[in-house]
Amino acid sequence: MRFFLRFTLLQSSGTFRVMALFFVCCGAFGQSHCHLRDPKRSVFDAYPESDGYRAIVREVDTEARNYVERRLPFRVHFNELGDHTLYVALRGKRPLGLIYVRSEESEWGLTEIAWHLSLDLRVREFKFHRCRNRYRNALEQSLFAKKLTGLDYESVIALLTRTGRLGEVRRYVPRGAEELATTVVRSAAKALVVIHSVWNAELEKLQDLELGMSAFPHADSFERLVSENRVDASEASKTPKSKMVRSVRAVQARAEKRRLLGRVIETRLHLDSENLVVRWHLGPENEVVSILPVDDDISLSQREMLEQVVDRKLDRISGERTIERAAQELATILETLTTVGRH
Q: With contact defined as beta carbons under 8 Å apart, do 28 and 34 qualify?
């Protein structure tokens, strides 16, 4: 018998809180619900920086099965009804990423693949947990595996032809491993569709929690910002006037007694013919505390550009420098936003 620390997201009127709950688990959640033979080891191997995890069990019903079969461009008979488990790696209360395991039929019997995914459903990597194909190790370490990193559903599907076979990506597959690689790509597509269909509500909460805690790790609660007509912030940024700010995801953080701590906003900026994803950390008066790139691989000149608006109030930034004009666009978008469930 083992003790685990489980974090539960509670939502009320658009605000969600994090509660730590101890629970007793026998045999790691029970065999009927467990898709990982050793969840603790698998999660910590995939996310070495994690110190806990959460398992979210949901039923895949006939409605979800029909959605999966309609969504996939290749023929599939999805008969995996019943309980499925999505694992969330945690660092303290902050979610780091996901693990979802799939069993695929192949000419070598069942092939079990663990998918390590980001919270926005992009592939981090895959690991074979059970596979009798002799090319399994070569495929895991191949350039093909690296090509999967960072891909979302649409990008994964683009790797396949209309008949569901490998397209141009097959050039990166070790000789002899083509069939196994096809199984892997099709498995990735199914995994991403199933997760989106079954756990979408939980994913939105986890994404907001991760975004908020990246700037406010000790906040009591977070609220998603949406437009007045309840359009998400990402949709509110799609206006004719929005030329640099191409997408927006925003939450605001509160302390006890609902004291506003500030906001954190993730945007995709189109600057000088390049796309750059950054997070704006704003104080309670909308002062820019910091702007940090999501991808560390940016140039020194780009970092210096971002620093040009730090310590300035967002709604008072003027000027014609690139980042200043982007800040002006973001300030206009924020004026249209409100919190979900605000009274």
A: yes
Residue 208 lies in a domain: no
Token representation of residue 219: 């906040």
State both tokens at 178: 């083509």
Q: Which structure tokens are listed for 166?
A: 């490998």
Query: Do 10 and 143 fall into the same domain?
Result: yes
End position of a domain, from candidates 154, 179, 203? 203
Shared-domain flag, residues 197 and 282 = no
Structure tokens at 223: 């609220």
**Does residue 329 contact residue 241 with C-beta atoms inside 8 Å?**
yes
What pTM value is reported for the model? 0.81
Residue 175's domain comprises 2-203
Give residue 81's pLDDT: 73
Buried b vs exposed e over 89-108: b needs ≥16 C-beta within 10 Å?
A: bbeebbbbbbbbbbebebee
Structural domain contains residue 287: yes
Run of H or E including 337: strand 337-339
Cα 89 to Cα 54: distance, rounded to the nearest angstrom: 7
Same domain, 250 and 127: no
A 10 A CB-CB count for 278 gives 21
pLDDT, tens digit (0-9, with 9 covering 90-100), for 220-233: 999 998 754 444 55
Whether residues 171 and 301 share a domain: the answer is no
User: Phi first, then psi: what are they for 253, rounded to 5°?
Assistant: -110, 145
3-state helix, strand, coil in the chain (%, to 5): 35, 35, 30
Q: At what angle do helices 178-198 and 200-215 cross, to 10 degrees?
A: 90
Find the largest Cα–Cα distance for the chain.
64
Q: From CA 213, how far away is CA 203, in angstroms rounded?
A: 15
Domain count of the fold of the chain: 2
State the chain's mean pLDDT as an integer: 84
Q: Look up tokens 């994690």; give the residue.
A: 50
Query: Which pLDDT does position 338 carry in this prediction?
Result: 72
Residues 69 and 173 in one domain: yes
